[in-house]
Amino acid sequence: MRIALFSAKPFDREFFDRANARHRHEIVYFEPGLDAATAGLAAGFACVCPFVNDRLDKPAVEALAAGGTRLLALRSAGFNHVDLDAAAERGITVARVPAYSPHAVAEHAVGLLLTVNRKLHRAAARVRDHNFALDGLMGFDLHGKTVGLVGTGRIGEAFARIMLGFGCTVIASDPNPDDELARLGVRYVGLHDIFERSDVVSLHCPLTPETHHLISDHALARMKPGVVILNTSRGAVIDTRAVIRALKAGRLGGLGIDVYEEEGDLFFRDLSDRALQDDVLARLLTFPNVVVTAHQGFFTREAMDAIAEITLANATAFERGSIPAANLVSVQVHVVNPA
Fold first, then answer.
1. What CA–CA distance (Å, rounded) separates 114 from 140?
2. What are phi and psi of 181, to 5 degrees?
């Protein structure tokens, strides 16, 4: 197939070219993100490969359909950036990568937790300045603490296993409990228990109308003083302004996030030579107990190999009329446990 790959970075070319040696599609890489204004670049391409921060709203989808696009091969597990109704109306098939390396994101979440808790970011900066004092760097033992998970899909499961290895008590909330995790000692409880009992709350849920701003003023008010919150799922699961209010009040012990609700115009770009225009993010970055990474949780060799291979395999399968059901997305699909 002729594939238009948008939001292309050098690493995309490296991994997709390698995977394509077997699939032999014709891939054209476009650096711009995909939206209604850039959709015209895909005219004549039967397959379009967007990234998670591209904007496939109804105007964009209609423009793609007018140009002959028949397949959206998402190189992500999430699909909240796609107007599925518009795609269905235009007869466009939507496929995704339901799982690549859940360990990549789970391990990154653990890295955020250790960095926030043990102040590793501040400690490393101090030592570079030859400041070897320990004042202000005290953390707490994770062993024996209660870690609450919102969502136990593949990533949540991997994170739970790691936290069990640390000797934590792990509780979780998910509409579809994982029997194996329950056998390992994870206790499934309601969201109110997660918020009230956890020393660490880690978010591994999809972005849906029900989870939008799940972490709100109300939720934060129910949490323990000093709680650490982690988010490696979708940015809008957290109400950033509410979190800032909790940080200013001294109620949050720390925040580690790899996603941000307004990241679309920021992440995956080098903006180091200009002023940050997002005042909310700028305020968030002023807190010493906040660590923000720019959506890099997926960014391991193993994950990128899997993303490229599965995305191109979806295109190959589309040509043959046999995309695996687990990889198809439709307006009827409601993912509870995303990878």
1. 10
2. -65, -40
Cβ neighbours, 10 Å, residue 123: 16
Cα 184 from Cα 168, distance rounded (Å) = 12
Using the structure block, give the residue that is written with the tokens 């296993």.
161
Query: Would residue 337 be called left, alpha or beta, if left means φ above 0 and alpha means ψ between -120 and 50 degrees?
Result: beta
d(CA 16, CA 33): 17
pLDDT tens figures, 47-88: 999 999 999 999 999 999 999 999 999 999 889 899 999 999
* Cβ–Cβ < 8 Å for 61, 92: yes
Distance (Å, whole) CA 69 – CA 91: 9
pTM value is 0.90
Query: Cβ(65)–Cβ(89) under 8 Å?
Result: no
Supply the DSSP string of 112-126, one letter for each residue. Answer: HHHHHHHTHHHHHHH
The residue with tokens 């709680």 is 227
Burial of 242 by CB count in 10 Å (0-12 exposed, 13-18 middle, 19+ buried)?
middle
203: CB partners within 8 A, 6+ apart: 150, 151, 214, 215, 229, 230, 231, 232, 233, 237, 238
For residues 49 and 311, the answer to whether their CB atoms sit within 8 Å is: yes
What letter does residue 171 receive in the DSSP assignment?
Answer: E
Mapping DSSP to helix (H, G, I), strand (E, B) and coil, where does residue 7 land? coil
pLDDT at 331: 57
Q: Which residues in 191-210 are b (16+ Cβ under 10 Å) and which e?
A: eebbbebbbbbbbbbbbeee
Q: Which residues are catalytic?
A: 234, 263, 295
Look up residue 231 and give its DSSP letter. Answer: E
